[in-house]
Amino acid sequence: MRTPFLSRDRLAVAMIVALLALVAAFAATRIGGEPQAGAPRPQESGGAAAPMSALMPVSDREFRRAVEAAAEHGRLMGTFDPAGGGEAYFDRLRTTADTAYAGNLDVEGAAAFSVHRRLAEHGRPTEGRARARVAPMVSAEAVTVELALTAEAAGGGGGGEVLELGTYHVSLRRDGGDWLVMGVSDTADIDAMRGEGLI
Q1: Any domain includes 82
Q2: Dihedral (C-alpha) 111, 112, 118, 124: value to the nearest 10 degrees?
Q3: Model pTM score
Q4: Tell me, what DSSP letter sits at residue 185?
Q5: I want to staple 78 with a disulfide (CB 3.0 to 4.6 A). Which of 141, 145, 151, 160 is the partner?
Q6: CA–CA separation, 146 vs 134, rounded Å?
């Protein structure tokens, strides 16, 4: 059984690592700086306007794969079986997470821990749904996707009770040919930190 202090320390380390990863990825998209004087700008190239996908630091295919990986993690966050217990829930989430984040999924205060607690209090089997809203950060090696998460009654055909689980930023990093989740943050917590001037 983890002590409260150990859990808080692990959560603090996980949050710092996730924030540093986001800052590094954000910086990577800005390193190019301003174009040199006289360098042609896209609208000055004389040809047809380039598609938006040409301006992305990752290919359209890779971006879609990252969004799909984020949505799968979000779907797993909202999927719960009371008979399986907490360990089965977190083990499923670890299949889409990198090693560092996988070790902190079940720490009190982590987004997955909070969602699991809410689903456990609900006490009924659910199937998660994840809807991608925006991608607030995109770089060649990391992507953050904002997801709206819900949980529906399992096997209910969409006609049962729907739990609104909130909106989350799911941050992923490229790992060879895969995209792995390296952190999940509740947007309500992010807004609170902004309000307090912490970020």
Answers
A1: yes
A2: 160
A3: 0.71
A4: E
A5: 151
A6: 5
Q: What is the mean pLDDT of residues 121-131?
A: 95
Residue 143 phi, psi (nearest 5): -140, 140
Cα 104 from Cα 30, distance rounded (Å): 30
CB 66 within 8 A of CB 58: yes
In a domain, 49, yes or no: no
In single-letter form, the type of residue at position 172 comes to L
CA–CA separation, 15 and 77 (whole Å): 18
Lowest mean pLDDT among 84-88, 110-114, 141-145, 147-151: 84-88
d(CA 112, CA 44): 48
**Residue 37 falls within a domain, yes or no?**
no
- Per-residue pLDDT of 141-157, as tens digits, reads 999 999 999 999 987 65
